[in-house]
Amino acid sequence: MRNKKENENKEKGFISLTLVISVSSLLLAFSFMQSIGIAHFFDQTIRKEYRLMSYYFAYSCINQALLGLSHDFFFSVDNEKSFSDLNCSIDSILDENGFKIIKVHGNYQNIIVYRQAKVRLFDDHIEVISTSPY
Fold this sequence. Notes:
This protein is α+β, with helices and mostly antiparallel strands and 134 residues long.
């Protein structure tokens, strides 16, 4: 009688231990999957922040090109002109039907954003007609 009761207790203990290990393994796997999801979310957030920074750096180069055009009506760029402190480059400045087309790109953490601005030059001021991606 005693042997039978001891065997039942051992079997209950083994089943309990197996259940605890199984539940612990499932919880560990679930927490691991959650941590991967959270890391992916933060990676996407950082990439979006870098893309936004590149976007504004590109506008800094548009401003630099406008500054050059305000000093010299015939200001042009033959090769790409980089501004390392602004993380951007002026790609080209083209004449098109009385307008100047300024093409630039911002580059921050190897995320490149291309922008262009269409401007009209007057004797005493510059008018930005539009800005868009290219």
